[in-house]
Design a protein that fits this description.
Pfam families: GerE (PF00196). Keywords: DNA-binding, Transcription, Transcription regulation. It comes from Mesorhizobium retamae. The protein has about 220 residues and is an alpha+beta fold. It has a 5-stranded antiparallel beta sheet with strand order 2-1-5-4-3. It is globular.
């Protein structure tokens, strides 16, 4: 199963935002248990999503790649916990704080042994930390999604092109969905020359000559 980004992701964010005060939240898919793609934003600026892709994902202590396949559903970061993780203070002070965020809780959705999706929930000092009731609700919500929505998802790898950056992986996924360059620009809020540059690099890393060959590879026919 692939998440319908305009349906499930947006509806999930609506439910969470109605259940507790947040300064913003986002929903995303996870490929191969570690590559974060297809962000859906609520109350967050695309500017910071671009900043995340270009730099801060490397220091994100809640990134799925750092969680691994341990069945963890929830993990949080605050200024105090960030001090214990190399790189995390930079992520906290230079990425979260400028967005008026001092509390972040990450949700991880599993299908079988793999993390296949996640959500970032952000709160300000004024909102206060996530309460035990908040965390209990979120844990049950993740469990519900896993049991009802993800229970039939297979274990196949979504994409196996080595060396792609998170942004390249996201764009490759959109190419595989038959999305044209202009639509990719609108979806990701980036310029057309940037999309073309990314696709050129993706073709090289995938070992293919053109977009058609890339789509065959993405769909397992190449």
């Amino acid at each position: 199963m692939h998440f319908d980004r305009t349906a499930f992701g947006d509806q999930f964010l609506t439910v969470v935002a109605a259940a507790m005060p947040l300064v913003g939240c986002c929903f995303y898919r996870v490929e191969d248990g570690r590559h974060v793609v297809d962000h859906r934003l609520s109350g967050l600026s695309p500017y910071w999503l671009n900043r995340y892709y270009h730099r801060f994902w490397r220091f994100d202590p809640l990134h799925p790649e750092r969680v691994g396949q341990q069945g963890i559903r929830l993990r949080s970061v605050t200024r105090e916990t960030a001090r214990r993780d190399a790189g995390a203070p930079e992520y906290f002070e230079q990425f979260l704080v400028p967005q008026n965020t001092v509390h972040q809780t990450e949700l991880y959705f599993h299908a079988g042994s793999r993390i296949v999706a996640g959500a970032s929930l952000l709160r300000s000092e004024r909102n206060g930390p996530f309460t035990s009731d908040n965390l209990t609700f979120l844990d049950r919500l993740v469990g519900f999604v896993e049991d009802i929505v993800l229970s039939d998802e297979d274990e196949a790898s979504a994409l196996d092109i080595p060396g792609l950056t998170p942004r390249e992986r996201e764009i490759a996924n959109l190419v595989g969905a038959a999305m044209c360059n202009k639509d990719i620009c609108r979806r990701l809020d980036i310029e057309l020359p940037t999309v073309k540059t990314h696709i050129s690099r993706i073709l090289v890393k995938a070992g293919v000559r053109n977009r058609a060959e890339l789509m065959k590879k993405l769909h397992g026919r190449g």
